[in-house]
């Protein structure tokens, strides 16, 4: 069984364009369009593939959306309904997850970088707690996955495997003990930085301070390897990317990054880093749409809610 990973937002490699062209079928073709039978056949083939291979979204900001809108009060937003009708619209609900054939979902647990000092661990634990409560509330649809075998088993049962991704190393307050405890309660990847440097790693959107990873930052990567937590190098500087690849003995991921050769932005991945990914065995998720990542030729189309939570589909 092959697992298909997706994530969302702005620039695409040619391979990703082809993959998305295969998966995304025109929503409303003309009744008289001769290609409709071919499209129906293609849709059926895609559905067959997704029944066999879990399609995994690598980064979904729904927990943060719940916090911003209703302070994590689950009863205030019904995921069985159409959250696209809310104001502003949301991008995630159970009908659309089902329609898209999603087999696994990494729920992003993020706290603002301004909260990166004392209290950060408590804040991110609140986000992780929300994901556990979300899964419990919608246990007819979601089930917590902690291992690759869990993903396969849950997908085979017809549910959506739910995983937790921690966005930003500022969440652990520079503590390996905190890192280990977030893993113990379900976090299965950590993005080493977010928009600003941590005390041990350079971000791609901040002035370089450490020339990549510090000695402690390297220790963080080694500890993540030891536990089995994925090292996510989205958001980090190119030198931090290289340092993480130098240190990591396990495949790394880019949970939501584009390709710099297509989208020239500090958040994207340079070619010299991409060339190292096959030897590492990792994967990079490209963005379909993201206002922060703009093509050199023309601005990317903004998502309909002003770009706070970009529509997320990517393949690797």
List keywords for this structure.
316 residues; disordered N terminus; 35% helix; disordered C terminus; 9 strands; alpha/beta; globular; nine-stranded parallel β-sheet; 13% strand
Brief overview:
By secondary structure, the protein is an alpha/beta fold.
Q: In sequence order, what are the helices and strands, one letter per element?
A: EHHEHHEHEHEHEHEHEHHE
What characteristic shape results from the CA principal axes?
Answer: globular
Supply Rg.
Answer: 19 Å
Helix content: 25-40%
The low-confidence runs, each spanning 5 or more residues with pLDDT under 50, are 2-32, 293-316
Structural class: alpha/beta
Give the averaged pLDDT, no decimals.
83
* Number of separate strands: 9
Distance between the termini: 16 Å
Main sheet: strands, sense, barrel? 9 strands, parallel
Number of helices: 11
Strand proportion, as a percent range, falls in: 5-15%
């Amino acid at each position: 069984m092959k697992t298909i990973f997706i994530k969302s937002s702005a620039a695409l490699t040619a391979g990703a364009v082809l993959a998305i062209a295969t998966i995304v079928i025109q929503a409303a073709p003309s009744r008289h369009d001769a290609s409709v039978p071919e499209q129906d056949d293609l849709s059926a083939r895609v559905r067959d593939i997704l029944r066999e291979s879990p399609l995994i979204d690598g980064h979904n900001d729904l927990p943060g959306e719940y916090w911003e809108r209703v302070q994590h009060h689950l009863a205030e937003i019904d995921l069985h309904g159409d959250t696209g009708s809310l104001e502003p619209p949301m991008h995630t609900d159970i009908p659309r997850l089902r329609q898209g054939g999603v087999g696994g979902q990494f729920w992003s647990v993020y706290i603002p970088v301004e909260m990166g000092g004392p209290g950060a661990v408590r804040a991110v634990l609140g986000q992780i707690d929300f994901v556990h409560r979300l899964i419990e509330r919608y246990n007819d649809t979601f089930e917590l996955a902690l291992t690759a075998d869990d993903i396969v088993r849950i997908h085979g049962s017809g549910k959506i495997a739910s995983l937790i991704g921690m966005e930003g190393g500022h969440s652990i307050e520079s503590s390996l003990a905190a890192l280990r405890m977030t893993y113990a309660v379900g976090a299965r990847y950590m993005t080493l930085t977010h928009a600003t440097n941590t005390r041990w790693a350079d971000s791609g959107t901040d002035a370089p301070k450490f020339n990549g990873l510090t000695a402690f930052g390297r220790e963080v990567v080694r500890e993540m390897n030891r536990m089995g937590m994925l090292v996510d190098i989205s958001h980090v500087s190119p030198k931090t990317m290289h340092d993480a690849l130098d240190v990591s003995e396990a495949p790394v991921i880019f949970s939501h990054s584009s390709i710099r050769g297509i989208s020239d932005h500090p958040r994207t991945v340079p070619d010299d880093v991409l060339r190292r990914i096959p030897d590492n065995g990792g994967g990079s998720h490209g963005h379909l749409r993201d206002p922060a990542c703009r093509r050199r030729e023309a601005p990317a189309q903004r998502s309909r809610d002003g770009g706070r939570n970009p529509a997320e589909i990517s393949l690797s």
